[in-house]
Write a structure and sequence with these properties.
mainly alpha, Growth Hormone, Chain: A, 14 helices, globular
Length: about 375
Amino acid sequence: MKPRRVDQVILHLAVAANTIGLGVIIALLADLQEAYDLPTAGLGLVAGAAFITAFIGYVWLSRYADRGHAKTMLIAGTLVGALALILAAYASGLWTLVFARAMLGFAEGAFVPAARRVVLDWSPGRPGEVLGRILAASVAGFALGPVIGALLAERFGLRVPFLVPAAVLLLAVPVVTRLRAPEPLPIVEERSFLSLLGSRLVLAGVVFGAIEFATLGSFDAIWARLLADQGASTVFIGGSFTLMALPLVVLSVRFGRLVDQKSSLLVASFGILAVAPAVLAYGWLNLPVALAAAGIIHAVGSSALSPAAAALVAKGSPPDMVARGQGLLEAVGFLAAAAAAVPSGWAYETIGRPTWFSLLSGVSVAIFAVGWLLTRSSA
């Protein structure tokens, strides 16, 4: 189905709107910790809650995007995200924040596989490019979130930064209803979600995606606390998120085109060469500016890994399981992100950040080697 130009604009703006709130809550974690007297270990719970519920959403809901319910999933994801931000605005302690963050994760679990199913239906011959463009829109929203959150928090306190993106999401709902969603494909054979892992291309893409999500999961949980401990201001912390998001916005589509023209393995190999050293540097650098520079390198690597992983999964998925393939990629990714995020606060306080980030970097390289072998053997 050839998309109208207005449909493409609406969908990508909706993707951006859905990620603004995620950026707000992550950038303000250090301020929320001080305001509500949260334990540092609790920061991992706040960050990890979204990853766990997103995993559930991707596993449970992605099949419905293949069966003609993509538009309903987009609308529902937008509404749940708005309610989650309203709840976060009126939170008074750790567990309310954890629940709000969990709702945001579930909203993403509904929204993202539907959006990916739609763009793959629009442009089936260019998976790397169109999925890279979805990533760019997602990160653009996330990049705006920290800046909006930091500026509004300094002027109006901690409640308004959540209410503003909630209002944006509520206004986006009637706009999303204008989208032309794909028709359901006939189910050739009823297969289990995990049957997709029988494809080496899918398995390799999932492995590459897990690296990206795990490193970003730990980053999400610790970054605000780490920079605050080095003397950075709330505005600097929010600005650093934006600076690190810019490579993802600018480069994701370019790397996606390179995936379509060359190979996913080439692009993913470049990604790990940027991600692994950057993650290692988080453990040893002390100046906020130097840490932010490492974060930009990390973002460049992620902008290569993400479209490479998504394109591998798209190519290895049967036509009637395209959305479930993308759901599987995101589900395993969020599970990896939770596994890295939840213990991050504890590791930061106990074994120390040099040991933690060195371990995370080494494991990332080892996992990449597995994905590299799978891709080579498939070729």
